[in-house]
Amino acid sequence: STSAALLTLRKRETASLERGTYVEDAFASAHEFSRAVADALEEASSSSEGDGDGVALARAVWELLDVYFITRGGGLGVGTDAVVDWYRVNASSLALGEASASGRLRELVARLKESARPEEASGYWEMIVTMVAIGWTEAANDLLQMHSAWAEWRLRKTSVQPQVELMEAAGALLRTLPKLGGEEGAANLQQYAAYRHEWLRQVKTVLAEGGLFNNCWGPTADGVRNVLLVLSGDERTIVSSVGNWVELMIAQLQHIHPTLKIQGEHESLARAACRSKGKLVSEALDSLIMYAIAGDSQGVISVCSRHLDSWFMAYSTTLLSRAGGAQADVLRRPTASGASQSELYMLEYCSSLATSAQTRDLAVRILAACCSERGIEMMATTLMRLAVTEDEGETEDDAPAKAAHALAVEVGLPNTSARIAKMASERARANGYVSLAFDWLRVSQNTVGSDELARGLAQVGALGDAAATLARVDKFMEKHGDQVLVHANGDVDLHENAVDFFRARAKFNAAMKILKTSVALDERARVAAKTAADALIAALAPRSTPPELWTAIIIDAIPLFEGAFDAAELFSPASCRLLSARARFAADLSRASSSADLDAASARAPKRVTKIDLAVAACALAVARLTNRVAFEA
Predict the structure, then answer these.
(1) How far is residue 115 from each of residues 102, 109, 118, 130, measured CA to CA in Å?
(2) Is the pTM of this model over 0.90?
(3) In angstroms, rounded to a whole number, what is the distance separating the alpha carbons of residues 78 and 230?
(4) pLDDT grade for 410, boundaries at 50, 70 and 90
(5) Distance CA 566, CA 263 (A)
(6) What pLDDT is stored for residue 267 in this prediction?
(7) What is the 8-class DSSP label of residue 521?
(8) Which of 53, 76, 292, 384 has fewest C-beta within 10 Å?
(9) Given a cut of 90, is residue 250 above it in pLDDT?
């Protein structure tokens, strides 16, 4: 795609800057970019989707800019073959009117279908002469081969021999037309001049064969004679055979001035041809082609900005700003806004991309590559619009926001990535996607937000069912695991965040499962018991666990307290004191109607025994038994 070509260009230029070879690599980078875009446009214009005619016109203009601003005739500075090839490929896309070669060819093709003898169709020989004049030699040869004399000659009809011989001579000269450069062409101008001199001598020799022309059927003789006159550079025949000044300039380049330098010398030839044939049907196209031939990039931009879209303006100014010379410097020079002319067109193009959900991602990537400073605000806005897109499947993966966050990180916008993570976590929490909210908080390393969310999940409900709350935490960790939880930085106390309670609780449960499945008091079971004991103490840290859960947590550990392992190896005296303190505080909390009643709660005898009272009593008894075991074994 064209965007891939643009991004590749920027990567190549960045690499060249790092190597210190930017100037040496500039032409190769621009040339690769130009060809890649041309290839993408060719593929797009040949497909049935979209605006085929618009793409074909964009390709024609793009390749014209490549000829006159980038390749410029290559090392020899002679661009005749390039200009001829450009018109041959793009003539039908330029809409130059019925008098142009492409317009006349369409009409001739329709007439050929109705004619039994192609050479008798109106305009047959005139079309061949025009094709030869503007360098469409292969097409001219193909049309020449449609002459009925060839079929009759194969049937041994001797009367057509003069026609066949004359057309064979013309065809051979067309096939051996001298070329400059390439695998089959001359290596330099001197060699080309020598080849062309000898070839022209052969053309004039055939023209001088009066007897061959006299024995030939009239229209064929006249047609071949005009072909040879064009090949010999006859000005009058060339002018009369073409339909507009572009074709006249190309014909003169091909057959009269084939070694003109593309810079400077083409312009004077084009203006003379324009005076001879008049302007083109389209005034805009007339100005555009003339500006391109003259090497006037500002003139080209002025015309294109009125008739072509923002994509073409962004890409063409990118190309022209790398063409070298003073005009390329103008495109790169900052304007009053601070951005260069090329950047402004790129910003406008990316602005149009950002209006569509399908192209916002592309807009951000192009802005990061081409307008990393001027486009920061637009990138941030576009990324936020990408992130707020609702997931059509209403799934809990939040793919749009994740893609936007990853892109923000990729293009180096930390503030935007943090905003996306914060927005996404809040949205996930509002929608009830707790694990997704935790995941976004982890991504943004938001320890405060993660702590708040964890405390909300571990909050005991109005009925005061601590066991149900603990089961909810266990279910969450069993389903999602540790990967969705934020990891605190090294300077944060491990027991200062409620998330650490979730981890400690999961670690305790995993170790207890191992103990339950163990059939012997082996080393594996001993390690699991010690792990469970340490995780229990960690889960009872001052600020990591809601006090309402302390009783239920301690009761879950009773099998560990009463196990066969040496209690003194599992719990230290300090651990026992912590467990006793938690059990006493939980007992007071369970009997207090408010925080103001806590101090007097232990002084009042309960009027009735509840399930909570039984749990508190069981907790206190278990801790007391453990404390005695540890003291006794120690």
Answers:
(1) 20, 10, 6, 21
(2) no
(3) 21
(4) very high
(5) 95
(6) 95
(7) -
(8) 53
(9) yes
